[in-house]
Amino acid sequence: MDLNPVGYCVWNVLQKRVYYCTKVDNVVDLKQPIVAEWAALDHSIIPSANDQWRLRLHACILAAGEEFVHCLQ
């Protein structure tokens, strides 16, 4: 599991908006939608990502650094 807020929160939002709404055939076609979605990103997700980070860090500690997704529920 990822402990980086960009990895588990911000990228997940971008991924949903880009991959599920755009047909991507190659890397060149992928860059423009990512840049556009990044510019349109709702920054209100950042505090939520930070709150999740604390929970994820605690779960990682409980799992002794192993897989901790089961500790998040």
Description:
The protein has 3 helices and no strands. It is mainly α and 73 residues long. The chain has one domain. It is elongated.
List the SSEs and their pairings.
Elements: H1 5-19, H2 27-40, H3 45-62
Helix pairs in contact: 1-2, 1-3
Structure summarized in a few sentences:
With 73 residues, this protein is mostly helical.
Overview features:
single chain, mainly alpha, 64% helix
Work out the helicity level: 55-70%
Q: Tell me, rounded to a whole number, the average pLDDT.
A: 83
- Radius of gyration from the CA trace? 15 Å
Class by SSE composition: mainly alpha
Task: Encode the helix/strand succession as letters.
Answer: HHH
Q: What is the beta-strand fraction? A: under 5%
- The shape, in one word, is elongated
The total tally of domains equals 1
Low-confidence stretches: none
Query: Biggest sheet, in brief?
Result: none
How many helices? The count is: 3
Taking the alpha carbons of the first and last residues, their distance comes to: 14 Å
Query: Would you count the extended β strands for me?
Result: 0
